[in-house]
Amino acid sequence: MLESLITTIYLFLASVATATLLAVSTFIPGYTQQGAVISSIEQSATLVVDEELIEEPAVLQEPQIESEHINLPAGVEITPEIIIESEIIVTSPIIEAPTPTPSFYETPPLPLEVVNTVSSPALVNILCASTPGSSVSGAIGSGIIIDPRGVILTNAHVAQYLLVKEHPNAIISCVIRSGSPAKTKYTAEILTFPYMWAQNHGKDLQLETPTGTGEHDWALLYITGTTDGTEKPLTFPFVSFDTREAVTTMNDPVLLASYPAGFLGSALLQRGLWPVSTTVEIQKVYTFSEALIDILSLGGTIVAQGGSSGGAVMNQWNKLVGIIVTSSVGNTTAERDLRALTLSHIDRSLQIHTGNTLLSFLNIGDFENRVQEFGETTVPNLLPYFPI
Prior knowledge:
The protein is built from seven helices and 19 strands. Strand 4 (78-85) and strand 5 form a beta hairpin. It is of the alpha+beta class.
C-alpha cells in the first residue's frame, strides 16, 4: 500500500540566520536517554545556522496509469521515494524489505552504555566554512572513523563540500573536529566519492532544503594532517563495522551518535558543539530495489536535526551497522522520522563504484597516493555535476 507523502531532508546545515534554541541530550551510563536541556540563546550567526521550519508539501494526486502486476514477497509494502525536479516533489516506489532474523553473533550483546563509551572517541564533526565571495555556503555534518589509519565514513551530501572546495569559485575551508566539545584537530581529503550520487544530486548543491532517499549517499575521507602543524597520530580511535545483509532489522535496539547542530548559532557551533548519543529501536526497514535492507527507520529522536548527517548507528555488539542520512519533515525532532543508510548498502554501492568491498578497499591501504590520484583524476570529472 502507498503511504502518505513525506519529504525526506538531509541532516546537515548549509545556510546563514540567527540562533534561537539549544537542545542537548546526553548519554549517561545506566540510563538510555536523558531529557533535553533547553536554554535560550541570543547569538548573531555568521556561518552555519539553525534549520528553518518547513511546511508539509501538499499531497500530490496520483496519476491514473496502468501498472504492471508485480509479485512482491509476503508482507512487503510500498512507500514513496522523494526526488527533486524543478522544485516539485515527485514520488517513485521504495519497497519495504522483509525482516529476516538470523543469529549473526556467537557472543552475548553488550549494554549500549558500554557501546557508547567504547565508540564515542571515533565520532568526528566535519566543519566546512566559506568566506565572503564564495559561490557556495559552508556546511556542518558528522562522520565516524572506521580504520585506525584515519579513514572517515560520512555522507556524500556532507563530503561534497570537500569536493567542491577545489573549484576556484568555492572559497571553502574544511576541518575535522572531535571531542566534547568539538575542537579543530585535523585536515582531510576525499578518498572516494560515489559518482552516481554526484550525477543525481550534484545539481541540488544550492538548494535551501535538498531532499533524497539516501541511495549511494556515502563517502570516504582520509585524515591527511593536523591543523596545528604537529605530527599526525600513527593511529586513530575507530569502530569496527558489519556489512552483512540484514544484520540489523526491525525492533533491534541501536545506539545513535552524532554532532547535532540544528538549534545552535555560529558561536556555539565553533566553541560549544557537543556530541549527542541516544538509543532507539529500529521502526521499519526499507529497500531501494530488491529484498535487501538499505534504509533503517529510527523514528523521532533528539539527533534528528541538522549536523547529524554521517553520524553512527551502532548495534549491541559494538559494530557500525549504519550512518544517519535523512529525516522526514517535522517542526520538532520528535515529529520527524530519522533514517539511516545500512553498511550493507554502502558495501554494495562501493563495489559498484570501485569493484571492491569496503573491507577490501581499506585493505589496499596506500591512502596518501590514492587521495592524490582521486584529486587529480576523478575530482575534475565530478565537478561539472555541481552548479558553482
